[in-house]
């Protein structure tokens, strides 16, 4: 017989401390069978109704059993105290019973700070941020004083400067000890996330005690606010104190240099990591690989990856994203396969990098295979993975797949909204694009310039002139977005194709920047089509100034002159093309054969394998000549 069972049989019926020790043992070994045995014994001797032992048993079932087991134990406790209710509440959240937990919370006779913290943290974990903030307000109305843990949750979900400042103010009013290093570090991190470096400095300067996390958080806050040089200065200042840099210090500094595209300073930081013995850390190596890759030193990044002592997901992710950034799709897929062979589970960032490459280079069937793997790993509802998935399907014309993925997203960030809007616009689904945009404006997210560019593109495709003009006219007032080239290009093209050339010229006259080649191209095509030769000549002249070697303005003018029988002007345009133009408008074609993608442009094979392909073609042509087919 197991020693544990012998001990159970030897128990005296009134030995509460002995049962408590046995429950401790069950907690350490996490055996549901042993928990059931102890629970049965408690029922036999009538201790299951006792508050202390009942709570202990309830906690064990919440951690190792089922929701039904936990609720049975909870219901049999006669004198439930606040601890009983809190354990059951946490257990229901752990079992995914959000609705039941909320009902239980409503029934609680007394709610302490632990009860409220459970509700707030659970709703944050489920992604219901607004509800979490609502529970915090109710907590204050109930006169329950928030704890440090309460504010640590709130600081992690602060989404705007105003909200962050309100949380900080509430901490001051609650009498929190802001000189506490943990709370101070959390505040610095929050302000860094919100790009409020000056407020982060304010907190840093009031802290009585600092640790390495305080310095790291401050440097990261400077980095988030775009103050890279200031962050590097703070590192120099930190070196004058007793605090020693750790792997997060070095990786943050290398990331700052990477953002600044300052290879020289990045190499100095990397050299420093070698000196202090932090080079072998994969977090540092990953940051260094990103630095070399973004500074066009991919060969150094590859060498660093090869010299790594061991691989982990972070290191492989950096190398995969570096290869994807440089268009080395086959290397991306090879690294992914090697990563899988090393039993390294791909993360959301891994799949995002691979899908981004797939959307540009891989055939649709291989992209679908990667999608299947995403579903198998349970990542399809993650916005980081879903956005490149939607982009991939949109580019190959399978927009319905992209719409389905978007509909199944549990939490949508602005990138996912923008991706589906651009995808629908790209595939000519103008009305659906406007519907999605209207749905977006009903959320807490604020559209950005990419959102508006996608919507204007959809209006252009659908010929929705009035709607396009309304959105364009209100984008600065309603969303604070200053129109850029892409917005002007869409609205000018929309007006031009609708024959409203005067309005299109009026928009160009009001531009905050000089119109580019594509904007004048829209005017040229439409004015030529609607017979406004004077405007066409003016637009063509602007295009020739911007891109003197482009043949497009000469070709369009030649066609316009030909339609009017102005043959001398036609000859003049054709001579100009021969003497002045070096480039013509060309497209490219891609074909996927097994694991390779070949791209053809202007009769030239861009991807590798071109020499072999032409040798085979020559051989086939020679054989066809011999056999009389040519």
UniProtKB/TrEMBL annotation:
GO BP term, pick one: RNA modification
Pfam families linked: E_motif, PPR, PPR_2
PPR repeats: 112-146, 312-346, 413-447
Superkingdom as given in the UniProt entry: Eukaryota
Keywords, alphabetical: Repeat
GO MF annotation: an example: RNA binding
NCBIfam families xref list: PPR (TIGR00756)
Protein name, as recorded: Pentatricopeptide repeat-containing protein At1g43980, mitochondrial
């Amino acid at each position: 017989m197991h020693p544990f069972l012998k001990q159970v049989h030897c128990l005296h019926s009134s030995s509460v401390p002995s049962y408590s020790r046995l429950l401790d043992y069950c907690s350490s070994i996490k055996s549901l069978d042993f928990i059931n045995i102890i629970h049965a014994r408690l029922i036999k001797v009538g201790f299951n109704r006792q508050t202390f032992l009942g709570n202990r048993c309830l906690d064990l079932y919440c951690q190792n059993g089922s929701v039904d087991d936990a609720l049975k134990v909870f219901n049999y406790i006669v004198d439930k105290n606040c601890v009983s209710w809190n354990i059951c509440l946490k257990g229901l959240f752990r079992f995914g019973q959000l609705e039941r937990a909320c009902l239980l919370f409503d029934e609680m006779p007394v709610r302490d700070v632990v009860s409220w913290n459970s509700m707030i943290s659970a709703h944050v974990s489920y992604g219901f941020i607004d509800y979490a903030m609502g529970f915090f307000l109710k907590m204050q109305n109930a006169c329950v004083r928030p704890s440090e843990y309460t504010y640590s949750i709130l600081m992690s979900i602060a989404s705007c400067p105003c909200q962050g400042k309100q949380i900080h103010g509430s901490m001051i009013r609650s009498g929190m000890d802001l000189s506490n290093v943990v709370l101070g570090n959390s505040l610095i991190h929050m302000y860094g996330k919100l790009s409020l470096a000056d407020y982060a400095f304010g907190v840093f300067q009031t802290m009585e005690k600092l640790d390495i996390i305080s310095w790291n958080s401050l440097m990261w806050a400077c980095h988030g606010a775009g103050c890279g040089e200031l962050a590097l200065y703070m590192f120099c200042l930190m070196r004058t104190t007793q605090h020693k840099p750790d792997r997060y210090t070095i990786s943050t500094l290398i990331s700052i240099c990477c953002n600044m595209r300052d290879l020289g300073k990045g190499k100095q930081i990397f050299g420093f990591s070698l000196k202090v013995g932090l080079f072998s850390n994969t977090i540092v190596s990953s940051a260094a690989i990103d630095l070399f890759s973004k500074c066009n030193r991919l060969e150094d990044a590859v060498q660093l990856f090869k010299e790594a002592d061991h691989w982990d997901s972070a290191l492989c992710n950096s190398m995969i994203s570096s290869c994807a950034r440089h268009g080395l799709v086959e290397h991306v897929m090879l690294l992914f396969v090697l990563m899988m062979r090393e039993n390294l589970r791909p993360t959301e960032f891994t799949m995002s990098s691979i899908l981004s490459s797939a959307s540009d280079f891989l055939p649709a069937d291989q992209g679908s295979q990667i999608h299947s793997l995403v579903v198998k790993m349970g990542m399809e509802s993650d916005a980081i993975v879903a956005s490149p998935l939607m982009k991939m399907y949109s580019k190959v014309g399978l927009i319905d797949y992209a719409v389905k993925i978007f509909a199944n997203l549990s939490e949508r960030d602005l990138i996912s909204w923008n991706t589906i809007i651009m995808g629908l616009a790209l595939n000519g689904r103008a009305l659906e694009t406007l519907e999605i945009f209207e749905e977006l404006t009903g959320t807490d997210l604020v559209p950005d310039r990419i959102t508006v560019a996608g919507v204007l593109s959809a209006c252009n495709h659908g010929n929705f002139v009035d709607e396009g003009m309304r959105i364009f006219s209100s984008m600065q007032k309603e969303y604070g977005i200053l129109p850029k080239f892409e917005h002007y290009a869409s609205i000018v093209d929309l007006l031009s194709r609708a024959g409203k050339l005067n309005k299109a010229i009026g928009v160009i006259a009001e531009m905050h920047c000089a119109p580019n080649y594509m904007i004048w191209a829209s005017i040229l095509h439409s004015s030529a089509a609607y017979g406004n030769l004077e405007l066409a000549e003016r637009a063509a002249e602007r295009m020739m100034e911007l891109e003197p070697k482009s043949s497009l303005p000469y070709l369009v003018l030649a066609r316009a002159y030909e339609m009017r029988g102005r043959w001398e002007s036609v000859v003049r345009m054709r001579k100009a093309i021969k003497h002045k133009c070096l480039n013509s408008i060309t497209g490219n074609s891609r074909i996927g054969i097994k694991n390779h993608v070949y791209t053809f442009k202007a009769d030239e094979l861009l991807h590798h394998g071109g020499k072999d392909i032409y040798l085979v073609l020559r051989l086939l042509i020679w054989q066809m000549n011999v056999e009389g087919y040519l």
